[in-house]
Amino acid sequence: MTDVKENVPGKDPGDAESRPCLRNTVNDVSKLSSEIGMNRDFRVEEKVLPPGSLEGRIRETMHDAFWEHLKERLSATPPDFNCALELLKEIKEILLSLLLPRQNRLRSEIEEALDMDLLKQDAEHGSLNVPHLSKYILNMMTLLCAPVRDEAVQKLENISDPVRLLRGIFQVLSLMKMDMVNYTIQSLQPQLQEHSIQFERAKFQDLLNKQPSLLDHTTRWLTRAATELSAPLPSGPGPDAADASSSACSSPSEAASSPEPLSPTMVLSQGFLNLLLWDPEDDEFPETLLTDRARLQELEAQLRQLTILASVLLVSSSFSGSVLFGSPQFVDKLKRITKALLGEFKSRPEEEAMLTVSEQVAQEIHQSLKNMGLAALSSDNTGSLIGQLQDVARRENCVRSVIDQRIHLFLKCCLVLGVQRSLLDLPGGLTLIEAELAELGQKFVSLTHHNQQVFGPYYTEILKSLLPPAQVLETEVASL
Prior knowledge:
This protein is mainly α and 480 residues long. The protein has two domains: 54-187, no CATH class; 192-480, no CATH class. It has helices at residues 18-28, 31-38, 54-75, 82-97, 104-113, 116-124, 130-144, 150-156, 162-187, 189-210, 216-230, 241-246, 252-257, 264-275, 293-325, 328-342, 350-371, 379-391, 398-417, 419-423, 434-466, 470-478. The protein is extended and about 90 Å long. The two termini are 17 Å apart.
């Protein structure tokens, strides 16, 4: 087994009770590193607290008290500038942190204009000019801010009250700090990605050194995938036989019928697809994917909603006619309505939520047909439409089952061919959710690609024992 050395004191590897602790460690460590590594669009965002939340009220109360205290100190006779000096010191540090290494002239200018020793002397003599310093700070912010912050800085120039102005300066500077962090992350993305891979692998190796059985669940996960791919073809063609055979990538059953041995790519692809069907109560989740389990559950929830959305659109189209569904505006509106109502699945039973979806969709179709001067739905057709849409809530519903299989086939193609090529030949019934599928496919591919880069050496060793002869497969495994 590939070993990344890093000396960390460990527990007795035979201690079975240590497994939950180790799993928690795997799950908690390097989440930020993993997110940056797999997400090229990763950004640090300002934490927005829910309106009326206790934490939000406490924070706002504390901030108000601080700025009120500053106002009292500056309004005193003589003024007390101690608090203002601390703020100016922090502002100076933030401004310096926004500079690039080559901006030496601006660095010297800020150091001179906000020389804390000189400002302290001015404060002791009662001559600290807070409005003048605030104006200088605003001018420097105008030079350093990203274009997206120009408007916010300009608004500060209209504030005459010194305390309100300082408060606004701090608020905008906090956004500028995030802009600089995100700029740095984007600039260093390749290095950060490589560091993320090496860091996560090293941390996992530390845990594996302490507990050699830490890959047991991963081995069973890959073994199951290989077994499924090796199973004989079903006796009759399934509902997706035509789509699968015409697709640019082979389905698991077609792969099994190939005379060539299973490839590591096929096994890993099947394994990753199985994770989207994982029972949340099953604790034997692959150890190499514990950090990604929450992300996979989010993808599974997104996949389920897309399955229902595509099913609703497919059923609706059979009642609406080509004219209505030939209108992109109508389709987009129907999608927006359905997506909004599907959000209630988290708080209501699917059957109950689908009744609302069914009624709203039927009403929209009925009204749109009338608006276009077409024959509106009869009461019998309306009842049939509502009934068929409501039945989509059942997982065994035939339309939902077929759509679910086709989305899984699309995701398999994404793993083998990439997202863009897979979008060129979408299975029937999925064209209306092409944009949503592209987003889902990209997230899934990014997650699995990063995971393979981190844990590829471990998968190599496991797959060598599952897919002999090893000599034939080594080149393929190495290319994961």
